[in-house]
Amino acid sequence: MSEKDNFFNKYILNSKSSSYRNMINLCDKVAKSNANVMLIGESGSGKDVTARYIHYKSRRSDMPMVTLNCSSFSDSLLESELFGHVKGAFTGAIDDKKGKIETSRGGTLFLDEIGELSLKTQVKLLRTIENKKVAKVGSNEEREIDFRLITATNVDINEAVCSNKIREDFAYRISTIVIRVPSLKERMEDFDDLLDFMLKKSQKENNIEIKRIEPKVKSFLYSYDYPGNLRELKNIIDRMVVLSEKGVITKQGLPIVHSLGQNYKCDDSKIYPLREYREIKESEYIKKILEKYDYNVPKSSQVLEISDRQLFNLIKKYDLK
Ligand SMILES: Nc1ncnc2c1ncn2[C@@H]1O[C@H](COP(=O)(O)OP(=O)(O)O)[C@@H](O)[C@H]1O
Ligand SMILES: [Mg+2]
Fold first, then answer.
1. pLDDT mean for each 10 residues of the chain (321 residues)
2. Which residue's CA lies nearest to atom 5 of ligand 1?
3. What is this structure's pTM?
4. Which CATH number among 1.10.8.60, 3.40.50.720, 3.40.190.10, 1.10.3980.10 corresponds to the domain 184-267?
5. Neighbours of 54 (CB within 10 A)
6. CA 208 to centroid of ligand 2, rounded, Å
7. Cβ(191)–Cβ(183) under 8 Å?
8. Atom 2, ligand 1: residue with shortest CA distance
9. Residues lining ligand 2 (ion), CB within 5 A?
10. CA triple 232-234-235, angle to 5 deg
């Protein structure tokens, strides 16, 4: 399978969520052009994946896509990563080096965390974009260059301009088209598909077969708010699969900080199996009674008209300690 086919099988791109579908439509439209694209969105929402999607949908799809994360290098190293350098340009430049811009010739250059680019390098990159010419560090020889630029950031670009971290002319130039990648919370219509998809993938990768997910784990997964978006969901699923017992996913695998007791609540817009709904409501109510009686078990069990032992078991079941 080609890398491209592999990409389209590796991620869910046909979405049930209108916000995600609108974004994909916009990507399809701009992919055909040569416009510079800026992707904004929370960490883990899929900006890298979206950049690659645009590349594969563009006329440049058979040419390279080169990715560089601007936060991974010191300023001078970043400049040389981008533009390359000639032998002797600075101490340690023992050979000529090709930069990422040249490597992306004819294709796409994806610069992640663009807000980390120094002002000096912004000027240099702006010149390259405007003149379509690139020169290695330490050389005056300019070569013609053609590439599509995609940038990504999870910082507010207007704010970065106001605080002089990003030059206005540069910001203006690289944001011809701004595409916002929705957070996972904004596309919960896709949650079941994503869960299914990631679960299958994780079972395969870990060579573990999952038969069942405990209902309370499922309710947690639906109600949790995923600050780390799809990346966090993938991590949670991987952990749950690895920590599953005899093919059953238990709350073992859930992140401890997200104790079930606190997140265990119903989302009113969702449909639940009746048993699951009863369990959720039951746990909420028991929690309320326990709080009312200061976690005094005999008093609480008395008003609930169950035995102390039954109440203990429910406390254990719903993690209400
Ligand atoms: N459309 C998708 N379908 C399935 N998984 C996805 C999708 N988009 C992102 N992911 C998962 O989320 C992770 C983070 O995506 P990434 O594009 O790196 O996010 P960002 O660059 O916004 O931080 C990916 O490694 C992948 O596991
Ligand atoms: Mg990223």
1. 91 94 97 97 96 98 97 91 93 91 98 95 96 95 97 91 94 96 96 96 96 90 89 93 92 58 57 75 91 92 91 85 75
2. 11
3. 0.80
4. 1.10.8.60
5. 26
6. 28
7. no
8. 11
9. 47-48
10. 65
